[in-house]
Design a protein that fits this description.
The protein is α/β, with parallel strands linked by helices. It is built from 8 helices and 5 strands.
């Protein structure tokens, strides 16, 4: 049984733009089922990102018992490795202060990747892989830390849904 760790964009993009609950309720019902089976997880930091708007999506995720995970020792250990990768990639980029902390390190993205690494999960992200390396996008960092990453449409296919 595969486990999927969703980043913030994997909730917001479908909710607002791609698969709104009033048009595609089956997708959201399947997510709820997989959340209850612990096949869909996300770190608590993603909840904090979604909470910023306190909209219907936030209300929906708050009803999903067991979705958001608090960091455990394994996640903390994986997080340090992920942050080191982010910093190393950042230093390879041109025209940046190598000592600055990239904004990508300050959000939930490193937590998502670390949670997935510690849980042997697949990251699900709304981000596309950046073509120009070095790149700090989630799929690029996942590749560097050997964590599988897919988009939401691939998750829907994995679910076997026909919307």
């Amino acid at each position: 049984m595969r486990i999927f760790c969703l980043d913030t964009s994997a909730f917001i993009e479908p909710w607002i733009r791609r698969y709104p609950i009033d048009v595609f309720p089956t997708y959201w019902q399947q997510l709820e089922l997989w959340i209850s089976e612990q096949r869909i997880i996300s770190p608590q930091e993603v909840c904090e990102d979604i909470k910023k708007k306190e909209d219907d999506l936030y209300k929906w995720v708050k009803r999903q018992d067991g979705l958001f995970k608090m960091p455990e020792a394994e996640v903390q250990k994986a997080l340090q490795n992920v942050l080191n990768i982010y910093q190393a990639v950042h230093r390879q980029r041109r025209h940046v202060d190598p000592n600055a902390i990239p904004k990508e390190m300050q959000g939930s993205d490193p937590w998502v990747i670390a949670q997935a690494k510690a849980s042997s999960a697949v990251v699900v992200s709304g981000e596309s892989r950046g073509a120009n390396e070095p790149c700090l996008k989630i799929p690029n960092i996942c590749a560097r830390v050997q964590v599988e990453c897919m988009d939401v449409l691939s998750l829907i296919r994995e679910m076997g849904l026909k919307l």
